[in-house]
Amino acid sequence: MVRAGFTLGELAEALQARLDGDPARVVVGVAPLDSAGPDEISFLTDPRYRDAARSSRAGALLVPADTADLPGALLRCVAPQQALIDLLRLFHPPAPAPAGVDRTAVVAADARVDPTAAVGPLSVVEAGAVIGPGVRLHALVHVGPGVEIGEATVVYPHVSLRDGVRVGRRVVIHAGAVLGADGFGFAFDGSAHRKIPQVGGVVIEDDVEIGANTTIDRATFGDTIIRRGTKIDNLVQIGHNVEVGAHSLLAAQVGVAGSSRLGRGVVLAGQVGVSHHATVGDGVVAGGQTGIRGEVEAGARIWGTPARPASELKRIVVAEGRLPELLRRVRALEQQLEQLAARLGDAGPAGGRGD
Amino acid sequence: MVRAGFTLGELAEALQARLDGDPARVVVGVAPLDSAGPDEISFLTDPRYRDAARSSRAGALLVPADTADLPGALLRCVAPQQALIDLLRLFHPPAPAPAGVDRTAVVAADARVDPTAAVGPLSVVEAGAVIGPGVRLHALVHVGPGVEIGEATVVYPHVSLRDGVRVGRRVVIHAGAVLGADGFGFAFDGSAHRKIPQVGGVVIEDDVEIGANTTIDRATFGDTIIRRGTKIDNLVQIGHNVEVGAHSLLAAQVGVAGSSRLGRGVVLAGQVGVSHHATVGDGVVAGGQTGIRGEVEAGARIWGTPARPASELKRIVVAEGRLPELLRRVRALEQQLEQLAARLGDAGPAGGRGD
Amino acid sequence: MVRAGFTLGELAEALQARLDGDPARVVVGVAPLDSAGPDEISFLTDPRYRDAARSSRAGALLVPADTADLPGALLRCVAPQQALIDLLRLFHPPAPAPAGVDRTAVVAADARVDPTAAVGPLSVVEAGAVIGPGVRLHALVHVGPGVEIGEATVVYPHVSLRDGVRVGRRVVIHAGAVLGADGFGFAFDGSAHRKIPQVGGVVIEDDVEIGANTTIDRATFGDTIIRRGTKIDNLVQIGHNVEVGAHSLLAAQVGVAGSSRLGRGVVLAGQVGVSHHATVGDGVVAGGQTGIRGEVEAGARIWGTPARPASELKRIVVAEGRLPELLRRVRALEQQLEQLAARLGDAGPAGGRGD
Questions:
Q1: How open is the CA angle A149-A154-A156, to the nearest 5 degrees?
Q2: What residue spans define the domains of chain B?
Q3: I want to staple C286 with a disulfide (CB 3.0 to 4.6 A). Which of A167, B260, B335, C290 is the partner?
Q4: Catalytic hit among A138, A240, A247, A277
Q5: What does the pLDDT look like over B224-280, one tens digit per residue?
């Protein structure tokens, strides 16, 4: 939480923004529109908040390049959302990790820890592990035998990396995550479930982020794979032999059962479940709590259990709300038709009520 | 699990109960009706268990004040459920924590640990953290830089409190919970998801309880807030910038997505999901697995995905069970009507089958 | 990940298989059909993969006893799935744990650790705990006061076993699991939720497996019990006073609320929720995300929320897909009937539209 002051001129240059206002004015922090004070800079990245921007007390605003009719100092940016990220990084640079192995950490004699890596207090690095340059292991991390961690990866406290797990570069693994626990594989022998040894591994590619207390199981054979750039939220379960494609987003409490394949750029909202051996195409977007089985074609937008096209499910949801009424209407139709038939001197058409 | 013996007279006084029986009789423990023995006291807090009470071997019973027709020694209480809590606390006082910092804990030089606090074996307290009076940190806890923990709070093993998290007084945080991990915030720049720095915090007010392996993310800006007296079960996810109102109950595996607001006294049953930016009014009660979006008005009882009034959903559920039959009945009606129209010398009314 | 070479003759003997091929041929590993090379043995346990078996480059195949028409060396087995487990154990024997207490572990003076047990680096064993023969505690494990762990049980890093938890023999507890946290029990006193002391325990019988970051709460009174041979996946929640019968399978993210009873051989797919005080009979199989309340009779196959017989739910799901169409058809019927009645010189039958 380091804070520094910047002049608007410095910020305009750093963010490649066009400044309307005094380049010598200093701001000391970033804050949302409603809480920013005169010595802070705020931002308008969503046009719905124009009114809040107009009434904000912020000393300056980061805005889209074509914004009109806003008072005060403006930093006009072509990509304001990206500029906001840069702005936040300027004001909140990552805390420097003291390179080196904390004296209370326990590191196996044959583990290789790059001299620029940091190993935090009471962390354990087992035999044959390889910790790359600039890696930061926080306190109380467990790195199992033969684990490999690539450059500049950050591992938060209480993470467990089981034997042989391979983690790429610039990966972030949040507290309590478990990578490489045994896949859930058993075979019933007539009297008991016998454990199928899970002899595969886990591969996390570059730039992946893994949420707190998320679990990613090792494969039975081969590898469970999370492709590059994919972001996984908290308390997510990834079963054995799953492959999650690049640049996907898995929200909290999603579960993906064994041997399923997710494509590139897939977005699963919270609590979605994917059955085993399912195939989810590139760019699929699934609404919260969706239950996915079988195959989902690329680009589909799905919702519900079992998953349906979201637009179809919305119609069904509306119709369900009318279902009790519909039952009454059908009953009424049956009575009317019966009466009508009776009036016509008939006991009713052949075929009866169909049940 | 400390146990002591009490006379019924002592218990009647401590619980402000009226005693029917021998005040000198000693009981040495509390047990349910079906397992209590003659040297134990049991309890009848739910009238459905009257028969079990009558046949119980318990040496005494804690009962509602107006209970009639039960044999044996009775402790009559106006609020028997509350009296049971007091009774259990008498027989099971919390184990005294040895004040002081265990010699194997790692505490930063500038952290402030109250002399009456206990820091367990192999716990880590980082720079600038403040541990209040009577706090108990169990073994293997991680307290990040600048964390503040209020008086008499208990933190179980393997909890992670990231930098700057503020925890109130008399809070209980169960094993493996993670407070203050980064919120799940990314912005796609055309080729990759860029991380939006999560520079806010987490505030846990007084008397909150947080379940095992639950995760509560830090805010993007400002704070994620859990208001006083709220109880959260295991494996719950609370996203960034969420506010949970006072005295709410969130059962296991509930997920609340970013920026949602829950009112006071909200009750969410197990596996409920709340979408981002939702607003749940005071006193809302949601059944298991409910999926909540948008706004739910105060006092509503809801169920289902998407959430509906519970009474409406129950009718829909019944109607759904008749849906296959309903399809057959509509088909029959269409045939009958067609036949009737044909008999009347007509090819059918204008408008056809409507599809 | 120890690997050794075996001759096919040695394997045939060890697996009680009939060998078609050269008994002197050596294989050095086990791999799936599509990735196995000439120096590896593969397996055909599912007849759907016959084509893959035919085109596999594997040096030998483990197959069902009656397999015909496959080229190359074959190991014919009566129970190929079980033989595969044996085969994997031959090639991947568990890494030997160095018996003894790591010098960095913290073990209470009065804890009893069997001399053949291993206690890993930075693990904590509290007062009165009993660690049986051949037990392996990995690094950073927490064993609370009075915990008992039976012979040959394996406990992975960051597991928390709260006070008094009893674990049987040959149990596997994966990383980050929490056993014995307080059950979620509170009583509202008119102004706040007061905690009901949870004074019971947890009993894990022999041969149980518990997944990563799974939580099993202690009972209010008595014990939460997991019966022998049951396998529980990751991120599962088991509430207080639950009993799970023997040889059951609970997939990832299942939640079982307090005081529920599951029978023997129950199978719950991922994300299933069981309400409190439910009773699930022996052999029940529940599909993913099912919501179970009340009582489910033995042998039932159920799905959906609320749970229904799976076959019935499948019909409902199909019918739901036709619900918007059904609404239109009923509207059309009403119009046709009205027109018909009008043509017959009538304002419509008594009773109107039934609503």
A1: 110
A2: 6-91, 100-311, 324-355
A3: C290
A4: A240
A5: 999 999 999 999 999 999 999 999 999 999 999 999 999 999 999 999 999 999 999
